[in-house]
Amino acid sequence: MFSDKKEKRIAAEPGSAQNRINEGTKLKGDVSSTGFFRIDGTVEGTVKTPSKVVLGKSGVIIGNLTCENADIEGRFEGNLQVSGTLSLRSTAVIEGDVTVGKLAVEPGATMNASCVMQDGLPKNTKTELNSSVDASKTPSYDRKSKVGNAVES
Fold it and tell me: 61 near 27, Cβ under 8 Å?
């Protein structure tokens, strides 16, 4: 009775599975999983996971990568979206567009990309928040008027 419930819960947990694409393996197409990836081969297409992706020294991704965290030692070309931390090791080569929450770069890494850092909010939400904050701002501090009032007193 209890073991049936436990098995169902374990199977439903995101990030519980590990996926590995070994060196010498080449995939073309879209790949998605709830578990994390270790890629030492080549993927041409889209890789999507709510977990972590590790791109080994011999690993190559040409296409799109969407994940929570990424640790890159190999080569990436395309659109990279990491909601958490992107770690670029010294052997990493990145080309394309990058959107990250946090960025860590070791000396020697190559990044020929446009990079946008955001706090996890979609761009539309950030724009709406900024415009509402701008509208509610009080006038800025005016030192001249404060100094003038102090001299008059």
Answer: no
pTM over 0.70: no
Total tally of structural domains belonging to the chain? 1
* pLDDT number for residue 119: 72
In a domain, 147, yes or no: no
Q: How far apart are CA 144 and CA 119, in angstroms?
A: 37
13-17: Cβ within 8 A, 24+ apart: 14/50, 14/51, 15/50, 15/51, 15/52
* pLDDT digits 0-9 by tens, 90-128: 999 999 999 999 999 999 999 999 999 987 555 554 555
Give residue 31's domain range. Answer: 18-110
What 3-state DSSP class applies to 82?
strand
Q: Bridge-partner residues for 45, per DSSP?
A: 63
